[in-house]
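Budget justification note: compute hours in this period were largely spent on complex prediction jobs such as the one shown. Inputs:
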Amino acid sequence: MDNTPYAIEMLHITKRFPGIIANDNVTIQLRRGEIHALLGENGAGKSTLMSVLFGLYQPEEGVIKKDGKEVKINNPNDANDLGIGMVHQHFKLVECFSVLDNIILGVEPTGAMGVLQKEQARQKVMALSEKYGLSVNPDALIEDISVGMQQRTEILKMLYRDNEILIFDEPTAVLTPQEIEELLHIMKNLAAEGKSILFISHKLNEIMSVADRCSILRKGKYIGTVDIAKTDKAELSRMMVGRDVEFVVQKKPPQPKDVVLDVKDMTVASKVHKNNAVKNVSFKVRAGEIVCIAGIDGNGQTELVYGISGLEPLVSGSLSLCGQDITKAPIRKRSTMGMSHIPEDRHKHGLVLDYTLEDNIVLQRYFEPEFTKSGFLRRKNIRTYAERLIEQYDVRSGQGPITIARSMSGGNQQKAIIAREIDKDPKLLIAVQPTRGLDVGAIEYIHSQIVAQRDAGKGVLLVSLELDEVMNLSDRILVMYEGELVGEFDPKTTTVEELGLYMAGGKRKEVHG
Amino acid sequence: MILLVQYTLLFTSVLLLVALGGCFAEHSGVINIGLEGIMLVGALGGALTMKFLPVSVGAPVMILAVILVSALSGLVASLFLAVAAISFNADQTITGTAINMLATAAATVGVKAMNTISSGGSDVSSEIAYTSARELLTVKLGPLTLNWFVLVTILALILSYFVLYKTRFGLRLMACGEHPQAADSVGINVYKMRYAGVMISGVLGGLGGIVYITAGINSWKFENGVAGFGFLALAVMIFGAWHPLKIAAAALLFGVFRALGNVYTGIDFLASLKLSSTIYNMLPYIISLIVLAFTSKNSRAPKAEGIPYDKSQR
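Corresponding output:
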């Protein structure tokens, strides 16, 4: 070994793309055995920087050093040879393969004629999983195991290749709170065993609890590196966003008026099991209030929204919107009657990913006379409309209205959906996990938009798994457990602990909507 | 009854070989609709070998030569698909269809030209006869007349299973058909693996072609193509859930029905029904429609098949 304390250094990296500078003189130095967080908003250049480290892009300026020696990384194989491994945000796992097959893929131990010898691989995997506390069943198929297990498989993939530098790209975005706890624990274990970890995240709590140091990027620029022990959330978020961030939503007391949405004895079938996912649920949402459905994931919230928005038919019960029955109304009817829906899965139900941004923005209104004349789209009007929304809601993208939705960052995709749904001037806004996977800046913006809708006299139905969001935003909280509403609460008088008790099924009371 | 067994074995072999070919291509991520055309090209190669190689070379040389030439012809035909679909990201279905149309047309024109020239203009058919050479392909086993190709097929089946599920090559091939980005991220060259998958399908498809045309008769009219057997094999592959052993079972089922069409007159019970031969000839196709209608919903195709691999998409 040499005397530099750094496992990998990226010095003065500049990477330009047509029109933007993705990385502008960025320097990151990763010490051996440390957990180094890389913090930045969506689009701040974190992914580009990692792609440079992986040899997917070549930087225009700057050098990469491994153990103090300059190295050239031309492709992912070079990175792998240097001991750099990465857990991608979207796992790179073959679903119908076993855990073991996925781990050895690409570095298979083989005998004569390329015949696989899985036994020795299995022993190495078992030894690694024991050493680092990563329990997995090597013979389980990826499609049968939980997301947390899949992530452990990805980690084992790196360890199996004897990688020393481990990169985690927003690893907690897809995990449940318990799985996040476990992951953070595993990361600490890995660092204690001498692995160097680069932890890409925009969740301040996680960075504060696990990282040793943190480097911050903003709009492609390197802002600085701080010791976690000597900083706090407020400073980190200021460095990330460039201004002070409000963690608490400012809002006036609600002024509920007429009933907008009336749900009576609604029952919705489940797609996963034979029982009903939503059982005899009744509640009302009034104009000018935010009603929040809280609950642990998978307790029927998804199906509840499917039922209300028309994605799934009701087994029984009735729905009315502003006094009119919509129990059997088609989705477009509900939409034109004043229902807006920010869906849980923005890729599946929110956007047509391979359409342009402007086509996505006009997706629910293209049939209106403003945008269609005798069967032909009025492209000019669509463009004007899209440009107005992009401007007004600050949707950032590479090429404006003609950007393909798939190429946009998650935060800006979500902003586009929110622009589309809010600009329709709805009477009822349904928002399902509207801030999932977004950074603090975007969360703050989306929260303020939702409150603004309430203040403008719209009814808001919010479904969220994040208790912080529930407590912050709602005027009324309904807790859902196993398809039923088990309690109604006022956020001013309840506590997170009390909600947790009801969410876990430990207590229940009558709900009268 | 013996005839039924004989024909069943032959038609099963055809379907099995070609379906295994399709299986390799699809596991690598490429849909090979062009198997029909590839079969015909393989058949043409084999038929020409049987016509022009003197019978005096003996059975082993003849068999080996026919197998080699058919396989190689199929491989060349499959390269059209590989180059267009893998290197140039062409639509795989359209490319495959083009191969089918091209193969029949080219074979017909080629054979007609050959016949016209060699006969001085009196024979303008697209037919190649290979009566004497065909006898070398068979071996008597008691009352059964077995074809050497049946043995080749069994070998191909065992080898396919072994290669797909026991070797590094198979693991990597299937990774490319399921999640090419994942394969790429661990340093596997997706393009190369897909070329390999398509080329193997060409070899097996070409073999299937020569087995098909030599199954029942001593000559073949190339304008007839291979009567949809390439597509039937695709149905067998889907019914067999892309797994060699299940494909073998499926091929056997279809093989029996196809064989019935050739031999039903020899089975008293069936002959007494006095059904038109057309009905029996239709059977395998009707069965495939019914079977696919009920099973294709549950069968699980390789996830990334049909999608050209684009390195830049994540």
